[in-house]
């Protein structure tokens, strides 16, 4: 599948369960029940993004980006190594939709994902600068870490917001 | 999870039998011939899913596999928007193809999914010698990848790759295009491999 949304060669598209810390543009495409968690350090023009699939790791550590708890600590640790402090980090949380109609609850884990991510942010005392969670619509997310950071959310219904 | 060529072939044959039955029932419903591709079976790392599942607006009818395999994974019928509208038109005898998806289309998509997946699971269950039944359907009309994520989250909590069976169905008139996906969970995958081993045993 062609993923040239950015029009920039350096952009990194993160698949399910992946995470990345850096200064280059990053994004996730076709976000459903998953969460894109972005941690942003304005002073260093540095950001971390995780494409989180489930709320709890239950001790599973081989792919930290996959779960809300492990993704949070992995992102913070890597940004810490790059010089970020908790007080300079803000968060953006996108995703956690309920994609299916007429569904038993098992497929609609979006809400649990969103709750888990927000709880972890609160524990860490990290302020949420922008949040778009829940609903019934898929989203794609693109983020440019430079300066204040630039965010574009494209929704499946064709609407698009830029921050 | 690495699939050797033999496993790949045998799994594809397994999917083939299910998909053939599903295609036959769709063909009967539309009273027109349906062509299908030989199923592709791939073990896909979840991080690479977006390279296999596109991001187009797609109608996806999803069933959990139940019966003797408890929560055995999912089967999915996926159809582009235009196909759903074509199918509703075909069934109702209407012709307006240039319209938004409505409730009638949603019902039609679910009904088509129901009929195809019942046939798919009947055929594959018989091969395995177990009872497999579809759950009530769930429907999403959205970015295909976004809908797939929710399904993958259910089958890949403990593992990092999923086994995906993909068969494409096409018809000329009406112009219909769609895919069937099967995502067995770890337990059902094990059962499939056991079945393959039995098939390999020499005749005595």
TrEMBL record, chain A:
<dbReference type="InterPro" id="IPR005659">
    <property type="entry name" value="Chemorcpt_Glu_NH3ase_CheD"/>
</dbReference>
<comment type="similarity">
    <text>Belongs to the CheD family.</text>
</comment>
<protein>
    <recommendedName>
        <fullName>Probable chemoreceptor glutamine deamidase CheD</fullName>
        <ecNumber>3.5.1.44</ecNumber>
    </recommendedName>
</protein>
<comment type="function">
    <text>Probably deamidates glutamine residues to glutamate on methyl-accepting chemotaxis receptors (MCPs), playing an important role in chemotaxis.</text>
</comment>
<keyword id="KW-0145">Chemotaxis</keyword>
<keyword id="KW-0378">Hydrolase</keyword>
<dbReference type="Pfam" id="PF03975">
    <property type="entry name" value="CheD"/>
</dbReference>
Automatic annotation (TrEMBL), chain B:
<protein>
    <submittedName>
        <fullName>Chemotaxis protein CheC</fullName>
    </submittedName>
</protein>
<feature type="domain" description="CheC-like protein">
    <location>
        <begin position="6"/>
        <end position="41"/>
    </location>
</feature>
<feature type="domain" description="CheC-like protein">
    <location>
        <begin position="106"/>
        <end position="139"/>
    </location>
</feature>
<dbReference type="Pfam" id="PF04509">
    <property type="entry name" value="CheC"/>
</dbReference>
<keyword id="KW-0378">Hydrolase</keyword>
<dbReference type="InterPro" id="IPR007597">
    <property type="entry name" value="CheC"/>
</dbReference>
<dbReference type="InterPro" id="IPR050992">
    <property type="entry name" value="CheZ_family_phosphatases"/>
</dbReference>
<keyword id="KW-0145">Chemotaxis</keyword>
């Amino acid at each position: 599948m062609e993923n040239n949304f950015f029009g920039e060669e350096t952009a990194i598209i993160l698949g399910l369960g992946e995470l990345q810390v850096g200064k280059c543009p990053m994004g996730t495409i076709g976000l459903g029940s998953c969460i894109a968690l972005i941690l942003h350090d304005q002073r260093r023009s540095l950001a971390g993004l995780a494409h989180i699939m489930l709320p709890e790791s239950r001790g599973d550590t081989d792919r930290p980006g996959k779960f809300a708890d492990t993704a949070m600590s992995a992102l913070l640790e890597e940004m810490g190594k790059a010089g970020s402090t908790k007080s300079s980090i803000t968060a953006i949380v996108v995703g956690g939709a309920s994609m299916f109609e007429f569904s038993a609850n098992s497929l609609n884990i979006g809400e649990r994902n969103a709750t888990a991510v927000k709880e972890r942010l609160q524990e860490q005392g990290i302020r949420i600068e922008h949040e778009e969670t829940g609903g019934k619509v898929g989203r794609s997310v693109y983020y440019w870490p430079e300066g204040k950071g630039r965010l574009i959310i494209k929704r499946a219904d064709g609407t698009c917001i830029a921050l | 999870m690495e699939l050797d060529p033999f496993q790949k072939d045998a799994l594809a044959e397994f999917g083939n039998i299910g998909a053939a039955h599903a295609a036959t029932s769709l063909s009967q419903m539309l009273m027109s011939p349906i062509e299908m591709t030989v199923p592709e079976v791939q073990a896909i790392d979840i991080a690479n899913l977006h390279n296999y599942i596109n991001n187009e607006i797609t109608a996806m009818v999803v069933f959990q596999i139940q019966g003797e395999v408890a929560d055995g994974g999912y089967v999915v019928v996926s159809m582009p928007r235009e196909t759903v509208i074509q199918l509703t038109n075909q069934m109702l005898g209407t012709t307006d193809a240039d319209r938004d998806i409505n409730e009638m289309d949603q019902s039609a998509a679910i009904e088509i999914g129901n009929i195809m997946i019942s046939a798919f699971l009947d055929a594959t269950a018989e091969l395995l010698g177990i009872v497999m039944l579809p759950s009530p359907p769930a429907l999403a009309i959205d970015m295909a990848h976004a809908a797939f994520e929710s399904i993958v989250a259910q089958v890949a909590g403990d593992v990092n790759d999923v086994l995906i069976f993909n068969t494409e169905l096409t018809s000329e008139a009406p112009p219909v295009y769609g895919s069937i996906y099967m995502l067995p969970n770890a337990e059902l995958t094990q059962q499939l491999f056991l079945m393959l081993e039995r098939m390999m045993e020499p005749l005595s």
